Amino acid sequence: MLGKLLHSTLSLVATVAFVSPSAARPATTASGAIQTLSEAAPALAPFQHVRFCMRYPHDCSSDLEQADRVELSPSTVKLLEATNRNVNAQIAPIQKTYGADLKVGWTIGPKAGDCNDYAVTKRHRLIESGLPARALRLSVVRTPDRIGHLVLLVSTTDGDLVLDNLTPTIRTWQNSDYEWIKVQSSTDARLWFDVGRKVAEPANLNSRALAQLAAQKTAK
């Protein structure tokens, strides 16, 4: 129990970047339409991600011929669960201070690290396993305690899923209880965008549901 508490506490203390006020909270529509995260206005990349790309250029390369979503098949679910569980277990949680010491940065597969190290390691492992890099996006969020945090967002044909070092459970982004700040670009892994919300409208919506959805979009 103490180990789990230490794991959560240290991981939450580790911040990733200044979080701008232009953030979108997860929500569902009155019609039940599926919402996926989308890229809104361009945003500054976290400084440590810029340094990470200099150190690991292969993990910041992009191939526009790749799919930007993966099919959520049983084998994919198994791979995501195993990767999330294994990386969470293999990296011991510590608090890192990012400052003048240029030796401190986001690292793939360290023995000990913070939320940033967990997220980039999971992305690296999934790319090695054959998943398209375009479907694997790092995302800066804010926890309910208003603390900056980094997670891995996996874009699938059934919605966007969150791989998080604070929980062994893979959740949809709507159920993560986070405030979504910015997300890595799906077309260029070096770029970042503010988070927007994109609604996939079911084709069989009745007129009342369509009116509700239209009113909701206008309000946004």
Automatic annotation (TrEMBL):
Keywords noted in UniProt: Signal
InterPro entries per the UniProt record, alphabetical: Transglutaminase-like_Cys_pept (IPR010319)
UniProt KW Lipid biosynthesis keyword: no
Gene3D superfamilies the record matches: 3.10.620.30
TM ranges: none
Residues of the signal peptide: 1-19
Keyword Coiled coil annotated: no
Name this protein carries in UniProt: Transglutaminase
Organism: Rhodopseudomonas palustris
